[in-house]
Amino acid sequence: MRQHILIDRPKRRAHTAYRLAPPTATPRAIPQSDSVSRTSRRSIGNDYSPPSVAFQPDPYLDYGRFLTDEGGILIIYKDFDVRFRHTLWRLAAWTAFTSIEAIYLGPYAPLADHWLNLAGLITAAVANFFIVKKPVELYRRIEIRPDCMIVEGRDVFWRRYIEGGFPSFQADTHGNQVLCGIYGTRFVEYLTVRRFDEKDRMTEVFAAHLRDAMQQQWSRPQ
Predict the structure, then answer these.
(1) Could you tell me which of 138, 212, 142, 200 has the C-alpha nearest to residue 175?
(2) Span 132-178, pLDDT tens digits
(3) DSSP element (H, E) containing 215
(4) Which tens digits make up the pLDDT trace of 19-62?
(5) Which of 34, 75, 141, 151 is the most buried (most CB within 10 A)?
């Protein structure tokens, strides 16, 4: 017969749950810079910063006033150069370019119709006229010193010869402002100031600044 062997079952041990102490929170100091602390205390309303006022556009276009080393007041402004040599240059340039176009439209005409070639030549001549018609601009200067007035750096008018009050601006027939007055025994036109367009008020500003400069320099006792 088969023998049966008795095997003891393993005894179960009762596991006792041990109660662990809760972890203790150790306070840890986080270093913060001064900028962070100041930012955290700043309210939302203080986040707005006004725009920078360092950049300011200059409203005096092509115009300026300066103090010179000789103690004078220098005013520089832009004006038109209406000398006759510029008229001759315009005439020469217009004639040269129009002649070249006339030669091209003559024996080398790209169109068979002569009337169209003539119309093209007239159109080119008119375009050349408007191109050379543009006025020449330059900067002029006038300096008021305690003893004289210097125009364009070369024409000197001495204060002791200016009679009948300070020079003043008067309008001419073309709407320009002319600085004129009595110098010795002659009526002299010192300079002419022209407007660039109908909204240009440089002549009024220039007249006010020049009058102030004369009062500052020439009202002092000699």
Answers:
(1) 200
(2) 888 888 889 999 999 999 999 889 999 999 988 899 998 888 778 89
(3) helix 202-218
(4) 555 555 555 554 554 444 444 444 434 455 555 556 667 777 78
(5) 75
* Bridge partners, 157 (sequence order): 149
User: Would residue 44 be called left, alpha or beta, if left means φ above 0 and alpha means ψ between -120 and 50 degrees?
Assistant: alpha
Residue 65 has pLDDT above 60, yes or no: yes
Which long-range contacts does 2-7 make (Cβ < 8 Å, 24+ apart)?
Answer: none
- Which strand ranges, in their side-by-side order, compose the sheet holding 63-67? 63-67, 73-81, 136-144, 148-151, 155-158
208 token code pair: 């006010």
185 phi/psi in degrees, rounded to 5: -115, 15
Give this prediction's pTM. 0.60
Ramachandran area for residue 90 (φ above 0: left; ψ -120 to 50: alpha; else beta)? alpha
Contact between 203 and 214 under an 8 Å Cβ cutoff? The reply is no
**Partners of 65 in beta bridges:** 75
pLDDT in tens, 37-49: 444 444 434 455 5
**Backbone dihedral angles phi then psi of residue 109, each to the nearest 5 degrees:** -65, 130
Q: Is the dihedral of CA 78, 171, 190, 217 positive or negative?
A: negative
